[in-house]
Amino acid sequence: MLGMSVSTGLSGPIYYAHQVPEHFHEHYILRGYRHPKSSVTQCLLSVFDPTNETLNIWTHFLPTWYFVYVVYHLWWSIDFTNDVYSWPLLSYLLVCCAFPLASAVAHLFNVMSDCARHVCFFLDYSALSLFSFGVALIYRAYCFPSHILSNTTGCTWFKDHYVNLAAITAILCTFISCETRFMKPSAARKAIRLGAFAIPYLFDSIPIFYRILFPDVNEWSAEYLHKRQFLFALVAAFLYASHLPERLLPGIFDIIGHSHQLFHVSSILAVMDQLQAVLLDFKERRSFVEPCWQSREFSNSLGYLLNIFVINSIIIMIFTIRLLYLKHKMKCT
Ligand SMILES: [Zn+2]
């Protein structure tokens, strides 16, 4: 394959879809493909080239620095070292920095080889799964509805097991999303992958859905931002699933404006609203939520997050070994 390229950038030739292997194709994206066996230098230089991945990289690399700036800023006003109450927030802030960075790295280096492409997206998926668990930690710590915390609804079981169930959904998310990379491209694969991310997201959001449906007697300032984050998340899911606008006008949005870039932007806007909402709950609800707290110990916040990180890393290692084994087997036959 390959042959005459569309144009030449700093990283080398840029190709049409029909010139690169089929598994590198993106739906309805006709051009802007990098060489499927790019070197590290070519990948790094490609961030300045007009490829179909360039804005995928920037739309997650720049937000990483926004979240790093937020951590730096908060570090001066919150005693993260000694105030146990802040540990779930710190866990969440760490995953806020990690998931867009992992995604930017995945989009940057996924054209180094077939194997690299899979491993890059294993990392991306596991970072998203870790993020979902970070969300569960802060929702449990600061955002649970008053009715459930004060036991007036009889939901004690849900309150006590929420974080453990979120851990299971996060691990399943990593496992299922990585498994989809071994499936043939199809609508079913897309639906399973979307479902793998939707399940932890929807489960984690139950306390916030509840707060929206059954408002507290206390008026919390974060309600509006909690609602708006769902709106951005809904738009993000729609863009991911629909492949709009490139589905309507293939070839027009190859470099700027295709659905994956818009999906990145919408999901980051959702996380920015979520972060602001959580910071409001963190400050306003302390005297209310702290008496019914599970998160006092390291093992219930940062330590738990570390455990999920280790489990996700083991899952990625197993999938990578499986990938190398399959590649070796194909060479032998
Ligand atoms: Zn992406």
UniProtKB/TrEMBL annotation:
UniProt entry keywords in alphabetical sequence: Membrane, Metal-binding, Transmembrane, Transmembrane helix, Zinc
Membrane topology: Multi-pass membrane protein
InterPro entries (UniProt xref): AdipoR/HlyIII-related
Pfam families: HlyIII
Molecular function, one GO term: signaling receptor activity
CC terms in the record's Gene Ontology section: membrane
Transmembrane residue ranges: 55-75, 87-109, 121-142, 191-210, 302-325
Residues reported to bind Zn(2+): 107, 260, 264
Subcellular location as annotated: Membrane
Family affiliation: Belongs to the ADIPOR family.
Protein name, UniProt field: Membrane progestin receptor gamma-like
Species whose genome carries this gene: Biomphalaria glabrata
